[in-house]
Amino acid sequence: MRTRSYMVGLAFMSPALVVLIGFFFLPVVLTAVFAFTNMSTSTGISGGSYVVTGNLLTALKENGVPVEIADALSKASFVVDPEGIAKARDAGTDPAFLAEIEQQLGGRTFTDERLFERELKTLQHRPRSIRDLKLAVDQFELSILNSRFTSESAARQAIATFLPSAPADTVDQIVEASYTGWTWTTANFKQLFSTSDTWRIVLNTVFYVAVTLSFTVFVGLFLAVTTFYLPAGAASAFSMLWLLPRITPIVLYAVMWKWFTWEGGFLYTAADALGLPAFNYMKGSVPTAWTIVIMVNGFIGAAFAMILFSSALKAIPVQQLWASEVDGASRWQQIRYIILPHLRWPILFVTSYQTLSLLSSYQEIWLTTNGGPGRTTTVWALESFNTALNSYTGNLQYGLGAAMALILVIVGVSLSIIYLRLFRFDELLGRPKIEF
Amino acid sequence: MQIVLKDFTKTFDGNTVIDRMNLTVEDGEMLALLGPSGCGKSTTLFAVCGIHRVNGGQILFGDRDVSNLPSQQRNVGVVFQNYALYPHMSVFENIAFPLTVRKDSKADVDRAVRDIAELTHISELLERRPGQLSGGQQQRVALARALVRKPDVLLLDEPLANLDAKLRLEMRSEIRRIQLETGITAILVTHDQVEAMSMCERIAIMKGGKIIQIDTPKDMYSNPRTSFVAGFLGNPPISFLKGRAEAGGFVLDDGSLRLPLPVASQIPDGTDLTVGIRPEHFGRAGDVPISGKVIFAETQGRENLYDVALPDGSVLRSVQPAQDDVRAGDSVSWKLESAAALVFAEDGRRL
Ligand SMILES: Nc1ncnc2c1ncn2[C@@H]1O[C@H](COP(=O)(O)OP(=O)(O)O)[C@@H](O)[C@H]1O
Ligand SMILES: [Mg+2]
User: Fold this and answer.
1) In what residue span(s) does the ABC transporter domain sit (chain B) (predicted)?
2) CB–CB of B98 and A327 under 8 A?
3) A21-79 confidence digits (pLDDT tens)
């Protein structure tokens, strides 16, 4: 009996489990994986190769690679060997000239391009045009700089032949640094914890969530209670009006706020006519920008809170309200002692739900102030979105962005656990009422 | 405090539920508003406590017109049908609520709550929540909350309807005891005639928003003004015979039964009449013999109940001391006390 009901329960849950794994668990796992890499647009998300670039050499010099080794790497040398001959032949150099090169100069190495060129000019079958000569010269060039090695061993060997005298650990360092693909790293977290910018954004986020949440709960409560005391017709019209922010598509809603607050918009014009300071309130000053960010998000939440609170209010037995009135409670006392206690769970629910959705939402801010002016209204979710998916410089730092997202997930999950404790969710989830 | 309703009228959405009701409840009296459900008892009660506003007429407490006062200012205690306790407060807080909202000092509240808890026998429950109480205990808490601030008037809306039979019996006498001890003027709304008869000084019986008769339980039982009142009071209920007046008496429509009735002497022959006979007036003793067939017999331990079908199909109820000589299906020839018969005109008026 017990196992059967267990199986039935599992069968009922399986679609939910699939959805849970597919849409919640997998993204979190992927985020966690990405967070420990240095993936970005330049590394790509598949493997890479080994390339020593000029920039890399500059960086290596700063990181303790001896200057002479770095400089040596940046130099080209010209080696007359069968490979070079073959390359030149492919490039269309006169075979007679090539034969002569092989015979006269075979096995020699030149460190200076001009020297090599001068040597070639002395040969009998040298080409007439300088261009063809240069072409031939280029084929013998052997350089580590900007050549691409597909495997680590190839890169190591090339460097070793180029710099036979370099110490092994220096070669290791160069090879490792020359890798263009992504690698595992904890650098993202180190970077996050060490920049002062991070703390700035954390503070912004805490401020944003706390104030928007309070706004949501208080406005939601106010709306629900006022509509509760209104006559039925007026109440439903009134609550429909307040639902608009919730049901308007977010882009349209953001555009409406822009019309409302930008230069030449409603507020601007009104303030101008009244002789009050008129400017682009959305982006013109930090206090107005915050006010607008909080209201834009707060009204959406308040509409949601209002619905929940209203339905909880309707569930209060009317006799309790009557009883409180004959007991002598004023309207305010009725709200304070009867109505608010009945709204305890909805308030807790809205608080926890909205904390989580505010923590992870950035669309509204992105579409309105876009984190400005400066970065004053940038919150964590927006910053991680910009880092990972929306960089101005074009280098999207997936790894760093994922690290930021992972921190958000950890904070969110911890908060959920705390809230579930508060809700005493286990009590709500008692034994099933119907037995199989 | 005397309560007076003068031409009290109440309409819901243009639908008149109570039309010009007049009622006086004397100081210290407990009056029952008795009637079938939907007749407007609760509406009347809620108008008295101010939950409903009157649409016409006046409500007076003593000589104070409270018709337009909000319920907060009427100083009434109400016990609601489902008790309407505040589930998030302890019993103590529930009872203290009327005092807390008027900001009495903590010491006063504490003393008043403990006094009233003692009166209602719930002193040991004060720390509990309403959800942890039985129906009878909740009832007492509701009563304590209604009484704690010494209201001028106590209103009870079907206070016993949600209790089981034994508790109902117990709470009936409890409520009456408390009402007598406090000497408070009370209105009890009920659809149960036993409750009304056992608890109240007077009963106002209502039908369709009107008061049909106000009387003491005893007078109302023996001297009902209409057939509705006669039918409403009494358990087992009265049985009615339909027939007509003939030669100073009553005969069934098929002429089979003839009852001599003093009142019938002034009634023209052929007038349609209804005669009500209470079950205790039909049995082994009486002056008019009646034969019929027992169609239903039931014992209640001390008494037996019989339904006897007469040849024309009408049914008389009889209640007799328990004995088991008669069973369903038996033919019996019993007697009826014609002097106790109640005679009603076709429209239900008592003659
Ligand atoms: N709030 C209301 N709105 C509309 N009609 C109501 C309302 N309250 C009561 N009524 C109507 O008034 C009549 C009397 O109701 P009520 O006083 O509750 O009866 P009861 O005697 O059973 O307590 C009923 O027909 C009921 O439908
Ligand atoms: Mg009622």
Assistant:
1) 3-233
2) yes
3) 888 888 888 888 887 887 777 777 777 777 777 777 777 777 777 777 777 777 777 77
Please tell me whether residue B35 adopts helix, strand or coil conformation.
Answer: coil
Residue A8 lies in a domain: no
Percent of chain B with pLDDT over 90: 57
Distance, in angstroms, between A298 CA and closest chain B CA?
Answer: 30
Selection from B216, B235, B329, B228 nearest residue B276 by Cα: B228
Residues A321 and A407 in one domain: yes
The residue contributing the CA closest to ligand 1 atom 18 is B42
Q: How many CB pairs under 8 A join A and B?
A: 62
* CATH code for the part of the protein at B239-345: 2.40.50.140
Instruction: Look up the pTM and report it.
Output: 0.74
* Residue-level pLDDT at B330: 87
For B3-232, CATH gives 3.40.50.300
Q: What's the rounded Cα separation, in Å, for the pair A427 and A71? A: 71
Q: How far is the CA of B47 from the centre of ligand 2 (A)?
A: 12
pLDDT in tens, B116-146: 998 888 999 999 999 889 888 998 999 999 9
What residue ranges do the domains of chain B occupy? 3-232, 239-345
Range of the domain at A409: 190-428
Cα A290 to ligand 2 centre (Å): 55
